[in-house]
DNA sequence: CATAAGTGTCTACCAAGTAGACACTCAATG
DNA sequence: CATTGAGTGTCTACTTGGTAGACACTTATG
């Protein structure tokens, strides 16, 4: 396979990345709706014509930014995986840690959830993506064949995890990735035990 | 004045900025000495040839990064200024706040002081620049014509301020710019009073 | 000693990025 | 209501920044 195409588009991708980066910063600065195409190209130090080579308008840039980050999140998880810890504690091992480290690596983007007039669709599609990852990429195992509505359980677990993520981001990543993942493990262990011994008391 | 030159070099400046940005991130990741030219261009998504168009080697890139940031710091202060608060509390008003906000805006760069194997010259030339700003851009006034060795006093004030800045950066900017500047004001007020009423007890 | 990885230089090529003009919409302003 | 200004989207022709790839060289590693 020749790498002519990949390296040729390296230049294009680079430009797109810089435009996206500029959009992130400008949303934080003045809110999504106030951002103009001119603002974006000025901030990223490109010509206005260049913008239209890559995107028809601001909406498409925003869409590309959102999709690329959420797809990156999905891709970061890796292949289907059987949790090392047995049972319903699927939140905790390598795949979940991949999610955490991806978010931290791209915290500049995910901080956008702290803003009101922010990237359209972010507040709905970010949690949806977490759920999708749980549904498609995680394999849940039951212990002792305890019957459970697996669809509900995945939702429950996914949104629980999302809540913790959201809080972590909102607080400005005050604890490290490692500390955060350990907090999640502790919480889920508690959940596991209460589920195991007392039954689903919710 | 035509802007042909400025806009033509916009492209060049943009590339240089991205290379510098890549260097910052790579120093944090693996230390200055371990960073190669190849690492830099890969990280910034440029061709290796492109690097040599702009810089003869890694050292020159590092030098350009350091100089541009420290010159930017100097330039951020603005023109000579007589402190609004009277006397030896020259640390506190608009010019000092400019320094603080410049550092915060470029915190990505200034965080490099937290690393051991970091940008050559940073640890010595950063405080020197603060001092230079105090010497060249601040006008100190005495109250009631109290005699004082002005050169010593500027050093004392500049390095005191630098110590606070250093701590603020090292702690990961835990307090906001506004909180930080107010802490500095409080500290300097104390200093002013003790100086004024008790004399230089140090 | 050999293999691998990085350096610095050079050449030829081309497409990404640029300047600038156009007609258009939409708000704000007197 | 007419006017001014700012932003949008499109298009054309140009140029230069960035690319590929080869070269000889230096270090480091096993």
TrEMBL record, chains A, B:
The keyword Repressor applies. Residues 36-55 bind DNA. SUPFAM superfamilies: Homeodomain-like. Keywords: DNA-binding, Repressor. It comes from the Bacteria. Gene3D superfamilies: Tetracycline Repressor, domain 2. Pfam families: TetR_C_8 (PF14278), TetR_N (PF00440). This is TetR family transcriptional regulator. It comes from Neobacillus vireti LMG 21834. The lineage of its organism: Bacteria, Bacillati, Bacillota, Bacilli, Bacillales.
């Amino acid at each position: 396979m020749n790498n002519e195409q990949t390296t040729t588009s390296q230049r294009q991708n680079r430009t797109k990345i810089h435009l996206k980066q500029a959009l992130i910063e400008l949303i934080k600065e003045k809110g999504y709706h106030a951002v103009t195409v001119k603002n974006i190209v000025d901030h990223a130090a490109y010509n206005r014509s260049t913008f239209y080579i890559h995107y028809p308008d601001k909406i498409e840039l925003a869409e590309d930014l959102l999709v690329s980050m959420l797809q990156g999140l999905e891709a970061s998880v890796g292949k289907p995986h059987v949790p090392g810890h047995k049972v319903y504690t699927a939140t905790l091992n390598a795949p979940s840690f991949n999610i955490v480290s991806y978010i931290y690596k791209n915290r500049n983007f995910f901080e956008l959830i702290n803003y009101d007039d922010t990237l359209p669709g972010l507040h709905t599609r970010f949690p949806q993506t977490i759920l999708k990852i749980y549904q498609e990429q995680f394999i849940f195992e039951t212990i002792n064949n305890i019957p459970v509505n697996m669809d509900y359980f995945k939702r429950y677990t996914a949104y629980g995890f999302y809540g913790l993520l959201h809080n972590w981001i909102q607080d400005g990543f005050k604890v490290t990735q490692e500390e955060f993942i350990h907090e999640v493990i502790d919480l889920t262990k508690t959940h596991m035990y209460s589920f195991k011994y007392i039954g689903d008391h919710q």
